[in-house]
Structure formats: structure tokens, C-alpha cells
Amino acid sequence: MQKFIKKKIKVQAVQYDGMPESLEELVALGLEYRLGEDSSITIVTPRGEVTGEIGDYILMSVTGDFEICNQDKFQKLYSEDVENTNDETEKEKTDDNSENTPGLIRAKLIKKMNIQDWIQIVASFLDVLMLLIFPFVLDVMMQRSIKTTVEFIYKDEIQRESVLLLEKTKTESLQIIEQAKKEAVIEADEAFRKEMERLTNERVKK
Asked: What is the pTM for the complete model shown?
């Protein structure tokens, strides 16, 4: 009697845990399924429809057929493909290292330099803009300051002139009043003198 060894068969499997992520993985495998109200999952296999529960594994064989295997049986029959996992890990490390190659480093430096150049250009543009605008702004501010100062001086001058005119008018008015008083006194004296002369003349005639 001849002896045979079971061939090592690699399968793809997804553990159904009821979460959207596991369902997305099943869809990626091309599996059509439907969910039950108790969170069970039903798939179509060559042997008909099979229903699994949360924790069961859904396998896709090398022929593309799907089947459901409970967790205990799956862990006894299958183990993780460490070799392919290591290959994928090495590939990820290679991809990470490839980002540090001289070409990529140079490209990053060029990109960084371009950003710095743009920043420097914008800064230079702002400096030129300030040089053009600042004199105009300064001139406007100076004109407003001069205008305000002139208005203040003009207002102060008007007030001072008004005070002087008022004082002059007051002085002239007082002088006119005094002159009028003097003239009134003189006229009164003259009238009194004439009246006395008239009375004296009348007495002499009598």
C-alpha cells in the first residue's frame, strides 16, 4: 500500500465578526451574502446555502468556491501564511526605505526649496508694495495733520481777533461815553453861565 501526504493548500479567509470591516473584505473577495436578523450570515456554496455565525471564518478556495468554517475547526486546520506575511512586511519596509532614496530626498528638497522661493517672492512683493504705499500713506497723514494744525491755528487766531475787537470796541465805547459826558458837562455849564448873565442883565436894567 502506498503512502500519501496531503498537499498544502493556501486559502483566503475572512473572520466574520459582524463589523462593517469584515463585510467589506468579503465584498472585496467577490462574495455575495445576506445577513439575518440575529447577525448571522448566509452564503451560497457548491453544496447549497450555508449559514454562519459571528466568529466563523469564510474561506475562498483556489477554485474560487466559498465555504464557512467554525472558529475551532479553522484554527486546527489552518495556520497563518507566515512566509507571505513576511514578504509583505519586507515589501512595506522596502517601500518605506524607497522613500529615503537619494532621488526622492532630492525631490523633497527641491519641493521644499520651491516653497521657500515662493515665500521669499511673496515677502519681496510685500516689501515693494510697502515701499510704494508707505510714502502715499505718510503723505496723506501729513496733509491731514497739517490741515488739522492750520484749522486749529486759524480758529485760535479768529478767537484772538474776536477778543481784541471786542476789547477795542469796549474801549472805544467807554471813550465815547466819557467824551459825551464831558461835552454834556460843558454844555450844561455854558447854559448855566448864559442864564446867569441874562438874569444879571435884567437886574441891572431894572
From this structure: 0.39
